[in-house]
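Title: Comparing notes on inverse folding

I've been comparing how different people in this forum approach sequence design from structure. To keep things fair, I'm posting one structure and asking everyone to reply with a full sequence. Here's the target:
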């Protein structure tokens, strides 16, 4: 399945917005106050990713972005079933977060591989940013004393 650059960017914006909500839901489910604070900070970072994507879209896409994302976005950087559990410990929440970040890395990697020119460079930068985010979440997980996934 092939998508346009405009649709890919709309999908990425929607994925980052969904990630913000995902981390806020994880924060609500986390039993530890410190964990809730960490997860809220990650949510704020995801909000910043979405804002950055919106500003780059104007440079990369002639015209308007599609009104909504397509169905590819549903599993990127979120794990809705996992956020229904109440009383998650910080380690459990961070393990879920690592999986979500890895999904985002794969998405941006696929877009970088199929795009050309400035768009390919842009999606590669997003992949690297998500990889840094995943590494930061793994570092937080290591600090909890839990076994890393």
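Reply #1:
Here's my take.
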């Amino acid at each position: 399945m092939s998508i346009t650059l405009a649709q890919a960017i709309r999908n990425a914006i929607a994925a980052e917005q969904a990630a913000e909500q995902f981390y806020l839901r994880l924060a609500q489910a986390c039993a530890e106050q410190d964990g809730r604070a960490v997860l809220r900070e990650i949510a704020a970072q995801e909000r910043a990713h979405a804002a950055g994507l919106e500003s780059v879209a104007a440079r990369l896409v002639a015209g308007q972005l599609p009104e909504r994302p397509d169905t590819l976005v549903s599993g990127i950087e979120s794990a809705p079933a996992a956020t229904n559990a109440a009383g998650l410990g910080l380690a459990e929440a961070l393990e879920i977060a690592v999986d979500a970040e890895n999904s985002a890395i794969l998405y941006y990697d696929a877009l970088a591989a199929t795009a050309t020119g400035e768009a390919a460079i842009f999606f590669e930068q997003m992949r690297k940013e998500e990889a840094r985010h995943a590494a930061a979440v793994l570092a937080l997980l290591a600090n909890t004393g839990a076994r890393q996934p």
